[in-house]
Specification:
- The protein is 42% helix and 23% strand.
- By secondary structure, the chain is an alpha+beta fold.
- The chain folds into two domains: 29 residues; 151 residues, Endonuclease Chain A (Endonuclease, Chain A), CATH 3.30.870.
- The chain has an eight-stranded mixed sheet with strand order 1-7-6-5-2-3-4-8, sandwiched between helices.
- The longest helix is centred in the N-terminal third of the chain and has 22 residues.
- The radius of gyration is 19 Å and the shape is globular.
- The chain starts with a helix and ends with a strand.
Amino acid sequence: MKRIAALTACIGWLFVAGAAHAEAGVLAARGTVEAAFAPGDDVEQLVCDVIAAARQQVLVQAYLLTSKKIASTLVSTRRRGVDVRILADADQDERTESSQLRALAAAGVPVWLETKYQNAHNKIVIVDAGRPDATVLTGSFNFTWTAQHRNAENVIVLRHHPALAARYADNWEKHREEAVPYKK
């Protein structure tokens, strides 16, 4: 009986510890993982491919978005009826003449600027968070020509993990609520 009680206590502890991990954002592994690195891999094209695969929604968090290729893919994705939304760092947009946010907003893509943080340093694309084939792309890769051609960068693409995409989408929405609409 003592062994059963000890085992029950241990299982109870594991359940509580597991619940605490789940609350802290620990999710069971599932889906597929793809890693890419610049220089070497065409990370910019991978970002475009992830965006172009969207069926319902694309949420972007960008520290800096100057890549015309990525901006063009976002616009064409929006034009085929996908809900595309952008969050970006306000200071980077102000400092960077080649920012594509003006062109995205002009094309009807809703854009918000994050002003609350010293650096809104996220580089994330969330695709179809509510679907079984949900995708999250993240890493060090800024959405810029320089990131592809002059920097050492990485991305990881996590596909078919709806719980992970939902967690990222919830965080995206929290940041959007704190952001200001783009006006220029």
